[in-house]
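Catalogue entry: protein

Sequence with per-residue tokens
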Amino acid sequence: MSNSTPAIHDAPLPSDRSTSRRTLITFAAASFVLLSLGGWLTSLGMGTWYETLQKPWFQPPGWAFAPAWTTILTLLAIASWQVWLRAPSTSIRNLYAVQFVLNATWSLLFFTMESPLAALVEILVLDAVVVIMTFVYGRVHAPAGWMVAPYAVWLLFATAINVGVVALN
């Protein structure tokens, strides 16, 4: 992501449009699944338990989360597609898969299992994975790294909210 270090795989995209299209559709579908799964797991925990939690003063209103996550996961799908086309490797696929599982697990822990402390421990790991992903993607294709950066920033904000919930309850 730095101007002084060029991305290592900033080469033209492959000319096979069919593979490129399938790859984009795959990442877009994965983002849709993650968004849907997160929403469903969150909805399971909404209700009396969640309403009675003390929340930090800086927590945004509930309506702000869906557009934020939709934007973030759309950018992640595009970034992942761009990186995969340039450097299709097991390590990049595994990095994507780990963030996917951790992201869904946070909603499960916090909302479904009603465990903000376990969710806090888990989101710290997710923070590290997404920050690493930002830099790895940026080394492969600089714009992809910048597309993942909002995810990292949002997660750090979500971590602060999670810390606030744990501290206040």
About this structure: The mean pLDDT is 87. The longest helix spans residues 17-45. The helical segments are 17-45, 48-52, 65-86, 90-112, 116-140, 142-168. The chain has one domain: 17-168.
